[in-house]
Predict the 3D structure of the following.
Amino acid sequence: MDYLRRLPLRAPYTVSKFTSPEVQKLLADWIPQRRFDVAVCDFLASTLNFPQTLPTPTALFQHNVETVLWKRRAEFEAKWLDRMLSKLEYAKMVRFEPQQIRRFHHVIAVSDADRQAMSSMVDPSHISVVPTGVDLSKYRYDPDARPAGPLVVFTGSHGLETKH
């Protein structure tokens, strides 16, 4: 029902469902006041919470290139209804993602492949790559090792990237 309610919106559902009037109000107050040296919008899904005008330098941290993911879903979803909805979301994302990327002062990508995919959306000089992952040549699994304190684990959704 929530999807149907948001269907007429220009923004993809995967973005519009994360809007928050409280967050929008807070950012609309704080961003123009330049209370920060830099603001970071984490994920494309958060972009609608940021005001249209960004007087504070603001970076968009892109963990994925959503148009690439939605195109893949639109092509390969097994169920016809899921494939049709994915095609609709992809069509919305093709318009939405580039507009949002251009709105921010800088974009942070997590891989060179993502940077390349976004290079057609914004001047590549506005994109930095900050890879996420582990240098397996430096860090190896030790079955006998025990953490000395709290342990934090990040499990990403990207596939493994290998270098040849």
The longest strand covers residues 58-62. Residues 12 and 92 are 5 Å apart (CA to CA). The beta strands are 39-42, 58-62, 106-109, 127-129. The chain has a mean pLDDT of 90.
